[in-house]
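Progress against Task 2.4 (sequence-to-structure conversion) is shown through the following example record, which the project officer requested during the mid-term review.
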Amino acid sequence: MAKENLHRSPMRIGMMLIIPVAAICWWWFGEPLTAGHAAWLVGFAGMLAIRMPHHSRNQANVQEADAHDFSERVLLTGMWLASMVLPFLAIATPWFDALDYRLPPAATWAGVALLVPYLWLFWRSHTDLGRNWSPGLEVREQHELVTRGVYARIRNPMYAAIWLGAFARRY
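C-alpha cells generated for the chain above:
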C-alpha cells in the first residue's frame, strides 16, 4: 500500500495546487481572463471535484495485481502534461503567445456548451464504477465488470467524457 501512495501523491499535490498557481500567474503576468479561459478553469475544477473523492476512497482498496510499470507511468505523465499542464501554461502565462490563434466566438461557446455533457458523463462514469475505478491498470479485491448505468450504453464512458472534455477545452 505504501508504494501505491508514493506514486500517486505527486499527482494529488499537483491537482490541488493548479488553481492557486493559476491565480498567482494571472496576477503576476497580468494576462486578461477570457470567457474561454474561465470555462477551462471551471471544467478543470469540475474534473478535480469529481475525481478526487474517488481517488481518495479507492486508496483503501486491496490490490490483487498492479501493472503500474515504467511505460504506463510515462504515458500517464505525458497525458497529464499534454491535457492539463500545457493548456494551463498557455492561458496563465505569456510563454506561448507567439503560437496563439483566435477561433471564432461560436467555437468558444460550443466548447463551453460541451462542458456540461463532459462533466456529467465524467461524473456518471466514476459513480457507476464506484470502487472499481483506478487511475491505472489494477485489479482489486472483489473487482467486477461494471455493465450497469452508462456502462450499459457506452463501451467506455470515461474515455468518451475525456474526449468531450478535449473538444470542450480547445478554445
